[in-house]
Design a protein that fits this description.
By secondary structure, the protein is an alpha/beta fold. It contains 20 helices and 13 strands. Helix 14 packs parallel to helix 15 and helix 16 packs parallel to helix 17 (585-598). It is extended, with a radius of gyration of 38 Å.
């Protein structure tokens, strides 16, 4: 029927759906809780199985004993080899921990027996007993190893299996139990055990106008100095009701008579200080004498020799001299730079070291008055003579070395880690006869510094450019760094070096922020083309500039420049970027975008040799920004370093150590001046020699 009312919809189906959904959620939550409980109970039961592996091997690479946890299927050779390559061989053992993928590794060196102890576990776990456990295992194993070595000999010991399983399990169990005992939750203290129960009502009362420095039973004033002696508690006199009216303006609790006495005393002190000021008033300074003319040793007695005013102007000879000087400058810049770059000059300081050692020995050998053979025994006192070095023996020398490195511009944190690495390397090592602790520590530090500066991989740009030529694509180098370090200038030096080796270069002007950046590169382009005219290269300019002006997207300009270089058959593309501080997040994001989009063959960080602690902050944040803003799982980080202004620092070359230690990447180029020829490669021994020079 038309007029009949419609029946209400049944809600039973909807209610059943809701109840099923709620029930499913409840079951899911219960299952998650059960999994969590099972996981923690599983971890509690198998606490001794949290270690993935433990291995003991010699520095020669012979594995003496190893343990692998239950359920661990993968081999531990990969993480251990990464530890050896990245830390032990690179002299970076200042910290005793190392992270490899999902594993956290801790290690300990035994220099007396040339042993290395390594333990590995998942880095999401916090195992507080690992350090103590490592020490215990080292002490027990080295004793067993020494006894076996004396009884069986080296060959028999290596042929037989070293039985250390029972001792290892016992030490692990003891370490876990001590860790549990320390981590037990302490019960809630009673009121009598708390500090609050010691307070009295009297100590919590503040007196008006009283001294807030320290009341009897009260607290010290925050403004009082820690080193100052505590003031005696002042006696507060009670105010009688029959006394005159107390004044209000900051003199509460004082009568009119006391205020009058205070005023008289104040005026009396003021008069005394005024008289003292008059007596101690300094006399008027005398009028300074006029500056006397300097007389040069080789300049003669007449000042006419220094007057060049008559020789300026349109003098023909002067113009000729200036032209000849300009020609000499051009000729000097045109000196050949074919092949590998010359290295930084090496200045040996062996003579100075010998003199320094002689001075130390002579000081020790000076006989003291009243002692017959005191001089000889004093000289021999500093000699170690086949005893093992302890940290107490090395601590004074390491402290001096740390201060010396900081004075040479090495970052303070890096200096501490280097000295700690040397201490771990030498601790327990048996020294030979007639060897001083100072010379031993100094030689170990010098070897460590040379090892750090020598790159893990050699960057051979000429070879890589030839390989890119065979693939018919340009070799792309991106320069980045903070403001004012010399990116554009050193880019022009590298362009000149590449042109000298027969390659064509395209410079991409991606610094679209700084005024004059494009004009600076255009000037370098004209200068380089004048040094290598196109007529000598088949009518084609060897250097070209690709620019789109200012305010454009740098990543887009770099992409267009690389495509243009591919079409025009350029060999190398040098991408100049804007200088940016490491704390500027938008500019760091733009740099990461440029590198992620264009994927250059080489990313060079340009840093000046004048920086100290700032070098650490710059490189860490540049690498962190490139990693954070990259779109791939393996982001492109800094591949090498260009160290500029190396000619301005004399022997304070610590920035080279700081930069190489932080990144682990080599210093590819060293800028030593302002001409195109002032480009060098790094000589590790020259830098270390300058660094260790007193």
């Amino acid at each position: 029927m038309r007029g009949s009312p419609r029946k209400p919809a049944s809600t039973s189906g909807f209610a059943s759906d809701v109840s099923q959904t709620v029930l499913a959620l409840f079951v899911e939550c219960v299952s998650v809780l059960v999994r969590i409980i099972l996981f923690f109970s599983f971890c509690k039961v198998r606490e001794h199985k949290m270690l993935d592996f433990f291995t003991i091997f010699s520095k020669g690479g012979i594995v003496l004993w190893c343990f692998q946890g239950a359920g661990v299927t993968g081999s531990f050779t990969g993480p251990v080899n990464a530890l050896i390559r990245s830390v032990i061989l690179q002299e970076r053992s200042g910290k005793n921990s190392f992270t490899h993928d999902a594993l956290s590794l801790k290690y300990k060196l035994d220099n007396e027996f040339e042993l290395i102890f390594v333990v590995g576990f998942q880095k999401i776990l916090t195992l507080t007993y690992v350090d103590k456990f490592l020490d215990d295992v080292q002490l027990h194993f080295r004793d067993r190893y020494k006894n076996e070595l004396e009884q069986k000999g080296a060959l028999k010991l290596l042929n037989n299996n070293f039985d250390f399983e029972d001792d290892f399990n016992m030490l692990l169990k003891e370490a876990e139990e001590s860790s549990k005992a320390q981590s037990r939750v302490r019960g809630m203290r009673t009121f009598e055990e708390s500090d609050k129960s010691q307070k009295t009502v009297k100590s919590m009362i503040e007196t008006k106008g009283g001294d807030k420095g320290k009341d009897s039973g009260g607290k010290k004033n925050k403004n009082t100095k820690k080193g100052a002696p505590a003031a005696e508690p002042t006696k507060v006199e009670t105010i009688k009701t029959s006394s005159p009216k107390a004044t209000v303006n900051g003199n509460q609790g004082l009568t009119a008579e006391e205020i009058q006495k205070n005023r008289e005393e104040f005026f009396r002190k003021k008069q005394k200080t005024g008289i003292a000021e008059k007596q101690t008033k300094s006399p008027k300074p005398k009028k300074p004498k006029e500056k006397a003319m300097r007389v040069w040793d080789m300049g003669g007695s007449s000042s006419k020799n220094l007057d060049y005013s008559e020789r300026n102007g349109d003098n023909a000879s002067n113009g000729t001299d200036q032209y000849q000087e300009g020609q000499k400058d051009v000729d000097r810049q045109l000196s050949p730079m074919i092949g590998d770059l010359p290295s930084v000059d090496y200045e040996s300081s062996e003579e100075e070291e010998e003199e320094e050692e002689t001075v130390i020995v002579s000081q020790k050998s000076t006989p003291s008055s009243g002692k017959g053979l005191g001089g000889m025994f004093g000289m021999l006192k500093g000699l170690v003579g086949s005893k093992s070095l302890s940290r107490e023996d090395m601590e004074p020398v390491l402290e001096k070395m740390r201060d010396h490195l900081i004075a040479k511009n090495v970052a303070a944190e890096i200096s501490a880690q280097l000295c700690e690495s040397v201490a771990k390397k030498l601790e327990g090592k048996v020294m030979g006869t007639f060897t001083t602790v100072t010379s031993t520590v100094k030689q170990a530090l010098q070897d460590s510094l040379v090892q750090i500066l020598q790159p893990k991989r050699r960057v051979d740009i000429l070879r890589d450019v030839m390989e890119a030529q065979n693939q018919r694509r340009p070799f792309v180098i991106t320069f980045c760094g903070v403001n004012g370090v010399g990116k554009s200038t050193n880019l022009a030096k590298i362009s000149f070096w590449l042109i000298e080796n027969g390659f064509t270069v395209l410079i991409a002007a991606c610094d679209t922020f700084r005024a004059g950046a494009v004009e600076q590169l255009r000037t370098h382009q004209r200068r380089l083309n004048s040094l290598h005219p196109p007529e000598q290269h088949g009518g084609r300019p060897v250097v070209q500039l690709y620019e789109k002006g200012y305010g454009k997207d740098a990543a887009g300009i770099a992409m267009e420049a690389i495509a243009y270089a591919r079409n025009q058959a350029f060999d190398v593309v040098l991408v100049d970027t804007a200088g940016r501080m490491q704390d500027n997040a938008p500019l760091m994001t733009a740099l990461a975008k440029l590198i992620a989009v264009n994927m250059p063959d080489l990313v060079l960080f340009v840093g000046e040799a004048l920086v100290g602690n700032e070098a650490v902050d710059q490189l860490v944040k540049f690498n962190q920004a490139l990693a954070d803003h990259s779109m791939s799982d393996k982001p492109r980080l800094i591949d090498g370093i260009v160290l500029t202004k190396f000619d301005t620092i004399d022997d304070k070359v610590g920035a080279a150590i700081s930069m190489t230690y932080i990144t682990g990447q080599p210093i590819v180029f060293v800028g030593t001046g302002q001409t195109y020829n002032d480009l060098r490669s790094l000589n590790a021994r020259a830098v270390v020699s300058a660094l260790m020079k007193a």
